[in-house]
Amino acid sequence: MDPEGLACTHPVHSALRKCFRDLREQNEGWKRTLAACTPLLASLANLAEQMRALRKVAFGKSPLRGFPDLPERLGRKQRGAVEALLEELHQDKLQELQKVRDAVAVRVSGVSLLCEQLGDGLVSTKAFQRSALWPSLAEMLEWLLDTEAFYHHVYLEVKLLLLQASCEDLAGLQALPAAWAQVLQHGQQSVVEDVLLKVCFFLEAP
Questions:
Q1: Does residue 141 surpass a pLDDT of 50?
Q2: Closest to 199 in 3D by CA, of 126, 146, 163
Q3: 205, 134 Cβ separation under 8 angstroms
Q4: Which of 55, 100, 106 is nearest to 78 (CA)?
Q5: SS3 state at 119
Q6: Residue-range domain boundaries for the chain
Q7: Distance separating alpha carbons of residues 143 and 110, to the nearest angstrom
Q8: Given a cut of 80, is residue 123 above it in pLDDT?
Q9: Can you list the pairs that 179-182 forms with residues at least 24 positions away whose Cβ atoms lie under 8 Å?
Q10: Most trustworthy range by pLDDT among 66-70, 74-78, 133-137, 199-203
Q11: Which domain of life is it from (predicted)?
Q12: What is the dihedral angle through the alpha carbons of 37, 161, 164, 89, rounded to the nearest 10 degrees?
């Protein structure tokens, strides 16, 4: 069988195609989730600003002095809104990002395990060397490891940022949008897109 015919039918190439196609899907969900966090964090910053402003109001010297429990009621309402947003970020958005991270890790591990089972000779096989249609096996495995590391790193950044967010740290809540913008720069950079572009011909090969 000629090298190209072998490349089209070899189980490693089949596994690689499935992995990269799944990566393309997972990456779209990853970007959607990161983008969906932005308005939630902006709301948290706004609430933190309102809470700080509330603490500065001298209700006893205002027309609202006839409502002595008003500051406490407003404070509870604001705190409840902050806690609800934080819960949505932790229980919904962070878990969605974790699912993407874990799904990519499982896929990459599956391909790596298959290559290990088939032996080191794969790398030197002509069908797995660089051609006009696809990169070499070594390149594609390296890129998959790069994407796995990328998701792991950004997920930890997001998790740390959200774990630090608290009703007790209003200044930190107000700073969240700016901190999140930095995370987005990492979380939506072209690492994965670059890899998918490099394998586009490989993915479309028969």
A1: yes
A2: 146
A3: yes
A4: 55
A5: coil
A6: 3-48+87-204
A7: 15
A8: no
A9: 180/37, 180/38, 180/41
A10: 199-203
A11: Eukaryota
A12: 20
